[in-house]
Design a protein that fits this description.
The complex is a heterodimer of chains A (454) and B (439). Chain A has a seven-stranded parallel beta sheet with strand order 9-8-7-10-11-12-13, sandwiched between helices. Chain A has a six-stranded parallel beta sheet with strand order 2-1-3-4-5-6, with helices on both faces. By secondary structure, chain A is an alpha/beta fold. In chain A, 53% of the residues are buried. Chain A folds into two domains: 163 residues, Rossmann fold, CATH 3.40.50.720; 234 residues, NAD(P)-binding Rossmann-like Domain (Rossmann fold, 3-Layer(aba) Sandwich), CATH 3.40.50.720. The longest helix of chain A is centred in the C-terminal third of the chain and has 24 residues. Chain B has 439 residues and is of the alpha+beta class. Among the domains of chain B are: 37 residues, no CATH class; 175 residues, Thiolase/Chalcone synthase (Peroxisomal Thiolase, Chain A, domain 1), CATH 3.40.47. Helices cover 34% and strands 17% of the residues of chain B. Chain B has 14 helices and 14 strands. In chain B, the strands form three sheets. In chain B, strands 1, 2, 3, 4, 5, 10, 11, 12, 13 and 14 form a ten-stranded mixed beta sheet that branches. A two-stranded antiparallel ribbon of chain B has the order 6-7. In chain B, strand 13 and strand 14 form a beta hairpin. The longest helix of chain B has 20 residues. The two termini of chain B are 24 Å apart. Classes of the chains: A alpha/beta (454), B alpha+beta (439).
Chain lengths: 454, 439
């Protein structure tokens, strides 16, 4: 599997570019992805708006020696635009700032970033306030549509601030850095909601997971292997889990990332306790778990047999539920961190539904429910739980799809290409950082703003 | 890491060597799943699996000791070359051992001894063998000619030597299947021993059946989940036949000892087939285990090697362990009743049966072993309870570390101070036994 698909390579050559342009075909570009030590952006950052949020973002970026601009200027190219809309009280208030943003769009670099900042429409304070709620929802719709107008690998996403949360909060900074950097390459038209000021800024943003011990299930290949690599890159020690039959691939991954390999079936009754024991023995602690292991058993419901349905439910949702229960049970025993962070893999199929995947969608939507339900309990002690819903991610599984189906699926999103396992891994890593503790109970889509679903 | 206290070899006291775990690849019947895999491939993969299980990436171990019985001359540094291909620190030294099927006990025992003496703090004992990639050499006539060619100085001399080359010189020399001094294959030797001890077909078939069924049950309960890493598409020993029964084993034809006619009892079912595979066990001092937060499974207490005079027919070829077992037990003041698990390598079911009969035999103990009475009966319910070579197969040098790792886990599960005895017979009339204590 190469870094870009064949079509993307073709349209990024002079001849291919000409053909695509003439015929009005999609013109995907290779996406900017993060490597250790990369800056957030490599060009000027325009910060629009006059709220406290705008001031704090500009100040922070300026302190880190980024080229920060406060007005559009003439023929100035921008690597990113941060649009602070947190002060809007009425939909009418949007116009000045968004029209100024419109001026800057033609000057946005390839792989550029737009990040809107606004107040949470779900906040209790606006439940009955029609104009305020209309304004906040308005920003949401605006951001989603703008994301669809982006070209050449650029994205638009939003940071949603809870009522008492300022942009100086660790998690707001963590979210901003994620959206600006190559870590969010395949995230478009999405929102990160910072619901509290919990969390602390790391000593080093290049090692936000330093000293963390994190379990990754299904770590032998594909997305699980990428998650292991990214967590290790960000400083974590990984306990990789997979079926005994995948042990050779698992040991390759673990030897690459300096982790330990645990061959076990996560559907075992005592899987959580086994993992606790292993983490306790070796590291004396467990800071997080990534419920990545999953299977597909596609069939139309009319043709579904009980083994297809039950085995999928057992692996994809029953196992995470049971393991979480066992980990939560053990809190206070000295191994499970108070700031336990749990992440799980959901799927756009769980959000939008997918023909032939009733079982898979039931489980993956179940993950979203589980994530919402545990948020309060985990948040109380500084922990968190979040989910990532990947869209079309290029793996060995998608390589096996029929060519035409695959080509269509790849282009059905704003970035007009499939994502990479690393794109999912970056989102998972974001949620495991203490800096992101204020983001809790959410599901982030990593789908290039796929046309299906919300 | 070096210990601060005085090492035993420098006047300090001996310290225990402990087993932390192990790893093996599934064993594969020869010329099957592992065709094309070299000893180095298999040993490297086995070590990589062990490293991943214990998080030893970049670690400098005291020493890695392994070996193979069937070895290419180019593999003179097999273990060191394998280590260089792993994630261990390149500063980890390694050496090869080669003493037929006792290789694997000798590698583990050697590492244990160095740990006990304080020369090293950690190490891996391993073994590997392949029949599918066995070395073929030029025969000795051809080799002599090539040496002459090498020594010839003038072109004329060279041509003279080259002219002597004949097609027969290109007939390769395969590894000896039989004993060098008797010309008999190992199976034929065992057939004589089996017959001498009056071991019945039924007794042997039962041992074979139990081996397969015990091992299949161990797989089912997940016993091997932390003892094995898949290799080349195999995640179980492909020789194992779950659901083995006496009826089907009873139908197999005689494979060895055909000259015994009606009294021949050894079949392909109760003899271990040729197999490819590798295994390794991780050992250390107690301090090293503690520093690295690795739970201790068992203590490797001692090992003992014996040899018999099979050439003159005084002893059975594979009966050396009957000499070594009483010696090691005596040394520790132990009897057979003290042992919780017996791991008697199943080269042939007949070997296991004959070994047990000999140890219980008054005459044999008095006249052959020079003891005043029989050592005693081995309780068959304590024998090879997770299966052994008849089910798993027997890649010669890998069998020792396979048993050490499995037995250590069994003893750990049984509890502290449980005892296990390993017995491995070997070509050349040798045998190695080892004693382990659970932690």
């Amino acid at each position: 599997m190469s870094q870009t698909d064949g079509y993307t390579r073709f349209v990024n050559q002079p001849f291919g570019k000409k053909i695509a342009k003439t015929a009005g075909l999609p013109q995907p570009v290779p996406l900017r992805r993060h490597t250790q030590g990369d800056p957030l952006v490599t060009g000027p950052v325009l910060v629009l708006g006059s709220s406290a949020a705008a001031e704090s973002v500009a100040k922070q970026l300026w302190k880190e020696e980024y080229d920060v601009r406060r007005d559009v200027g003439l023929k100035q190219n921008f690597a990113a635009v941060v649009v602070a809309l947190d002060g809007v009280q009425h939909p009418q208030d949007l116009s000045d700032t968004v029209l100024e943003l419109g001026q800057a769009l033609r000057q946005l670099d390839s792989n550029g970033r737009i990040v809107t900042i606004f107040r949470d429409p779900n906040a209790a304070s606006v439940t009955n306030d029609a104009t305020a709620l209309a304004a906040r929802r308005g920003v949401e719709g605006f951001t989603r549509s703008l994301a669809k107008e982006m070209r050449r690998g650029a994205t638009a996403n939003g940071i949603v601030l809870g009522d008492d949360v300022e942009m100086t909060a660790a998690s707001a900074q963590s979210a901003l850095r994620f959206f600006l950097s190559g870590r969010s390459a395949y995230v478009a038209g999405q929102f990160l909601t910072v619901s509290s000021s919990a969390g602390e800024v790391p000593a080093n943003w290049d090692a936000p997971l330093a000293d963390k011990v994190i379990v990754v299930t299904g770590a032998a290949r594909g997305i699980g292997a990428a998650i292991s690599e990214v967590l290790a890159r960000d400083g974590a020690t990984v306990i990789g889990v997979d079926m005994p039959s995948a042990g050779d691939a698992l040991s390759d991954v673990m030897n690459r990332v300096g982790g330990i390999a645990v061959q076990m079936d996560i559907t075992a009754e005592d899987a959580g306790d086994q993992l606790l024991q292993k983490a306790g023995e070796r590291f004396g602690r467990l800071d997080g778990i990534v419920h990545n292991a999953g299977i597909t058993r596609d069939k139309l419901l009319a043709n579904m047999d009980d083994s297809r349905w039950d085995s999928l439910i057992a692996v994809n949702i029953t196992a995470p539920l049971r393991i979480n229960e066992q980990l939560l049970q053990a809190r206070g025993d000295g191994i499970v961190a108070d700031s336990l962070r749990i992440t799980s893999l959901s799927s756009t199929s769980g959000i939008a539904g997918n023909r032939g995947q009733t079982n898979y969608a039931a489980a993956k939507a179940g993950i979203i429910g589980m994530t919402q339900a545990y948020a309060e309990l985990l948040g109380e002690s500084g922990g968190s739980i979040n989910a990532v819903a990947p869209g079309f991610i290029e793996t060995a599984m998608t390589d096996a799809m029929p060519t035409a189906t695959r080509e269509v699926a790849r282009r059905m999103n704003s970035l007009q290409q499939g994502g990479r396992p690393v794109d999912v891994a970056e989102a998972i890593a974001l949620f495991h950082a203490d800096a992101s503790a204020g983001i809790n109970g959410t599901t982030l889509r990593v789908c290039g703003q796929s046309m299906v679903g919300q | 890491m070096t210990s601060t206290s005085n090492a035993a070899i420098a006047g300090g006291s001996l310290r225990p060597a402990v087993v932390l775990g192990g790893n093996r690849i599934p064993f594969a019947r020869a010329h099957g799943a592992y065709t094309g895999a070299s000893n180095q491939d298999m040993l490297t993969s086995t070590l990589e699996g062990l490293i991943a299980r214990f998080g030893l990436q970049g670690e400098q171990l005291g020493e890695v000791v392994a070996g193979a019985v069937m070895k290419h001359s180019a593999d003179f540094n097999l273990t060191r070359e394998s280590v260089l291909g792993t994630s261990l620190a390149a500063h980890t030294p390694a050496h090869d051992v080669q003493t037929a099927c006792a290789t694997g006990i000798e590698t583990v025992g050697g590492v244990a001894n160095k740990i006990r003496l304080g020369q090293i703090d950690s190490g891996i004992g391993g073994g590997v063998d392949t029949i599918s990639d066995a070395p073929l050499a030029f025969n000795s006539d051809a080799r002599e000619l090539f040496m002459q060619l090498n020594r010839a100085r003038t072109t004329q001399d060279k041509i003279k030597v080259a002219m002597k080359l004949r097609p027969k010189h290109f007939a390769p020399l395969a590894p000896q299947a039989g004993e060098v001094r008797t010309g008999l294959s190992m199976g034929e030797h065992q057939a004589l021993t089996t017959h001498d001890w009056g071991v019945t077909r039924q007794e042997q078939d039962e041992i074979a059946m139990n081996s397969h069924n015990n091992m299949a049950a161990a797989y089912e309960e997940g016993f091997f989940n932390d003892l094995m890493t898949p290799f080349r598409g195999l995640d179980r020993d492909n020789n194992m036949r779950p659901g083995s029964d006496l009826e089907s084993l009873g139908k197999l034809r005689i494979a060895f000892g055909k000259q015994l006619g009606e009294e021949a009892t050894m079949t392909a079912g109760n003899s271990t087939p040729m197999t490819d595979g590798a295994a390794a066990a991780l050992l250390s001092s107690e301090e090293w285990a503690e520093t690295n937060n690795l739970p201790i499974l068992a203590e490797f207490m001692d090992f003992e090697v014996a040899a018999v005079d099979f050439v003159n027919g005084e002893d059975g070829l594979l009966m050396a362990p009957t000499y070594a077992i009483p010696r090691i037990l005596d040394r520790h003041g132990l009897g057979l009743d003290d042992i919780d698990f017996f791991e008697i390598h199943e080269a042939f079911a007949g070997t296991v049966a004959a070994t047990m009969k000999a140890l219980a035999d008054e005459d044999y103990n008095k006249n052959v072993l020079g003891r005043d009475k029989a050592l005693g009966q081995i309780d068959p319910t304590k024998l090879n309870v997770k299966g052994s070579s008849l089910a798993a197969g027997h890649p010669f040098a890998a069998t020792g570390p396979r048993i050490v790792a499995s037995l250590s886990k069994m003893l750990h599960e049984k509890g502290p101070d449980s005892l296990g005895l390993i017995s491995v017979c070997a070509a050349g009339g040798q045998g190695a036994v080892a004693l382990l204590r659970g932690r």
